Amino acid sequence: MTTINDIAKMAEVSRTTVSRALNNSGYVSEDVRKRIMKIVEETGYMPSQSAKSLRTKRSGVVGVILPRLSTETSSRVVSGINDFLAKNGYQILLTDTELDSDKEIDYIRLLKSRHVDGIILLATNVNDRLLKAIHDSGIPFLSIGQELPGITSLVYDDYHAASDLTNMLIHKGHEKIGFIGVTKEDPAVGQLRSKAYKDTMEKRGLPVKDHWIGEGDFSIESGYEQMKRILKNSQGDVPTAVFAVTDRMAIGAIEYLKEQGYRIPEDMAVVGIGASAMSKYLTPSLTTVDYFNEDVGQKAGSLLLDKINNKKVEKKFELTYRLILRDSV
Questions:
Q1: How would you classify the pairing of strands 322-324 and 288-290?
Q2: Which helix (H) or strand (E) holds 119?
Q3: Cβ-based burial of 149 (10 A; exposed 0-12, middle 13-18, buried ≥19)
């Protein structure tokens, strides 16, 4: 089994220089670093994590708390987090709350017991108990999705993204626009996207009617059922467009509309949010919003590492987005 001393001998440098190269700490010339890393790759040398933990008093593990592991948003964010942290010698430990806020608190305690160096939370239903658990943990913490008081947060611009989508539909000539949202317990997706839709309709002097609005649970199935409900309750006053707050619910809505003989976008335009991989392969392809989730994960990993290393980090970062105009409008 290759040791750090073996690497040092083969590279003709000191053990300390090898350690600096492996840990990105202290000065090592680029030529020497490349020589060391080439030998590491050729020998398959793996530093002892337990020895490293004893030396640095760190576990080399970051906990990631997800609202639902199966969603494409979660998987893309996690991909970005893992990509960045792996390059910096960290592993991630994933937990899935299944949209249960009590599990978020349980997992914070569990991850603390596992001595993780930091935690990244994709926040959904935020309450005082959760905030207390975060602050009481004493662990470097970062939130993705919405702003948490006193905690470094990467915040999606849900309000303006939803407003832009609604304005785009109005610009295309739609005045009767339905809406499929989620529970208001979710401050970002549930509240901000809904408020943006209603505010924009009101500013443009257009009606918002109760029978044009449905509330799902992020799933394709709920998009299908809420579209069914909207059509049933809107007989004689059917909207000409529907804004679903996630791509998955938009896909469900499209499926039901097709079953009922609606042509998209001729009879009903449909939009979503999320830029899912499936969105561009639907027939017709789905107009949506891209939040650049893999980049968000990379940024989250970078900022959390700064916090772990006691660097000063701002409390709030507003994330960018872009509208992707396709054939569903």
A1: antiparallel
A2: strand 118-122
A3: exposed
Is 63 in contact with 116 (CB distance < 8 Å)? yes
Q: Tokens 């500013």 sit at which residue?
A: 203
Q: What is the pLDDT of residues 18-41, one digit of tens each?
A: 888 877 667 888 899 889 988 988
**Phi, psi of 237, rounded to the nearest 5 degrees:** -145, 55
Nearest CA to 65 out of 128, 149, 133 is that of 133
Q: With CA atoms as reference, report the closest residue to 106 among 118, 117, 97, 93.
A: 97
Residues contacting residue 1 through CB under 8 Å, at least 6 positions apart: none
Instruction: Write out pLDDT tens, residues 178-202.
Output: 999 998 878 888 999 999 999 999 9
DSSP H or E stretch at residue 278: none
Are residues 169 and 329 in contact, defined by beta-carbon separation less than 8 angstroms?
A: yes
CA distance 105 to 140: 15
The tokens 């290393």 sit on which residue? 309
Nearest to 49 by CA among 89, 8, 2: 89
Indicate the SS3 state at residue 271: strand
Q: How many CA atoms lie within 13 A of 115 on its CB side?
A: 8
Q: Which residues contact 242 (CB under 8 A, 6 or more apart)?
A: 177, 178, 179, 180, 227, 230, 250, 253, 268, 269, 270, 271
Report how far Cα 2 is from the mean position of its chain's Cα atoms: 39
**What global pTM score does this model have?**
0.78
Q: Is residue 52 pLDDT above 60, yes or no?
A: no
First and final C-alpha spacing in the chain: 61
Other C-beta atoms within 10 Å of 221: how many?
14
**Cβ neighbourhood burial of 208 (10 Å; 0-12, 13-18, 19+):** middle
Q: Any alpha helices (H) in 13-71, and if so which ranges?
A: 15-23, 30-43, 49-56
Which residues are registered as beta bridge partners of 216?
182
